[in-house]
Amino acid sequence: MQFTDWIADARNIVFLVIALAMVGAAVMVVTSRNVIHAALMLVVALAGSAALFLMLGAEFVAWTMVLVYIGAVVVLFLFGIMITRAPTKADPVRLDHKHRWPALLVALGTFAAMATVTTLAFEDAALPDGVARAGDIGDVLFDRFVIPFEVVSFVLLAALIGGIVLARKDPE
Fold it and tell me: What is the pLDDT of residue 152?
């Protein structure tokens, strides 16, 4: 497939825009000195991955990303930052960056390996037409896995209560 054929499809242009926004947000997550800004850029990166799942027709995975990762994990990060009154900006002291280049090489090597293996495994195979709908997954989740689902909710509640107990100030 030639690049001109690839770019002629509007879905590929939408993918490119979302992917570039995700890469920019991911870079901002790891380079931002402000923790709040890093968490908000993480929201952008996760929303981009949810949008890519929607483009693939995996609506359940996309909305799970929105609900669980954006709606719970990032909010939990922000909640933990606010409740502990942690400093939101990095210290003005120059941070040690001696491992920056090895980390970059490992990250690029991991990306290259994953991209190569994925491309070799799937090549130009078309996606299957049968897509599992969210209603079917919900029936299985609340029929067969209702007990583990409820146990996870209690674990999350215990973590929330533990965070509040650790962060509150005891009267003297």
Answer: 86
